[in-house]
């Protein structure tokens, strides 16, 4: 059981004791703290709310609505929705902020409150610290009975989102329609089951098969779109002789593809392919977090742009993108950020741009993948137990590899001759992530394994 407070929001498991998990009391506490923070710097009293398809979603939703209303805040409820839809709806509704109820890629027992500002972007680390401080002191005051907030439902936000994607200048729905793609979607029993097919239909795709289509939060497999979790999708693409497989996570901000032969396009290469297309249409710079593949840097240089790495975490990627005026960016976990649509990871715009690229290139997904540099990444994690000393672990690693270039902006990234490894504590789980990349699959795995042994020496 866990409760994690970070720049990624308030995330925890459902059930257990208050303070140790995301209990009803904790939901109320952190919602009240966020609402109080919002009212301290804005006269706007409107907040947009949406949730993914998790089992606990409706329960948490009711708690959040009642708490915000009790503070005197008006709630616009999107109900079942996607993270990027809520982000865009904050702007559509001219709201003061937004809350998304989703634990993204975490298993079904998890849920979370992701907190947005008036731009529909995740609140900064500094603002997040203020929210946590308010919560720690229970420093909030509820409204008298005649000043309670209102409650309204918005059923049009997803359509507004889809319209914005279809009308985005670099999306070519006519060319996609002409390609007559046959697509299989793994919707992982959540919001992608309705959001992605609606988008595909709007793009002119008619032949769509949806796996795990019932929105019940009982995820058919681990919801993180990693290779070991996508065997059903790969097999179905092959069986149906489809042109493409699509997998999204429960809140539809991460995206990966399966090629026509049932092989994985590669989660890391979602951003690479989309960036390749965007940069072919408009010159500019790119950003991804430092745990992402170097292939994005290669593609950026090919198009005459500059690549800049950022610390892990969407808010960090967004801040870096703004600083370097990036035209495209995101994360190697399949998160696409298109800044002139909105500064948030968005699988829907990612799908539309990828399909446009595929249709214009007149290549199969496998042929397109073969046009990109071939790097291999090994993604691993070590669970942390109560009382762990992260500084001690990292100091040990720094000392051991002091002769190599080390970046400490976000955990430790160690550069070797043609390989790298990145160690960092997760913002969303009590783990250390160990990512390694190399030109050779075995080398990447060996580098990661060696660092995992080094870590365990001091745990």
UniProtKB/TrEMBL annotation:
One of its GO terms (cellular component) is cytosol. One of its GO terms (molecular function) is phosphoglucosamine mutase activity. One of its GO terms (biological process) is peptidoglycan biosynthetic process. Residues 8-138, 161-262, 269-374 form the Alpha-D-phosphohexomutase alpha/beta/alpha domain. The keyword Phosphoprotein applies. Residues 398-449 form the Alpha-D-phosphohexomutase C-terminal domain. InterPro entries: A-D-PHexomutase_a/b/a-I (IPR005844), A-D-PHexomutase_a/b/a-I/II/III (IPR016055), A-D-PHexomutase_a/b/a-II (IPR005845), A-D-PHexomutase_a/b/a-III (IPR005846), A-D-PHexomutase_C (IPR005843), A-D-PHexomutase_C_sf (IPR036900), A-D-PHexomutase_CS (IPR016066), Alpha-D-phosphohexomutase_SF (IPR005841). Coiled coil: none annotated. Pfam families: PGM_PMM_I, PGM_PMM_II, PGM_PMM_III, PGM_PMM_IV. SUPFAM superfamilies: Phosphoglucomutase, C-terminal domain, Phosphoglucomutase, first 3 domains. Keywords: Isomerase, Magnesium, Metal-binding, Phosphoprotein. Its cofactor is Mg(2+). Belongs to the phosphohexose mutase family. NCBIfam families: Arch_GlmM (TIGR03990). This is Phosphomannomutase.
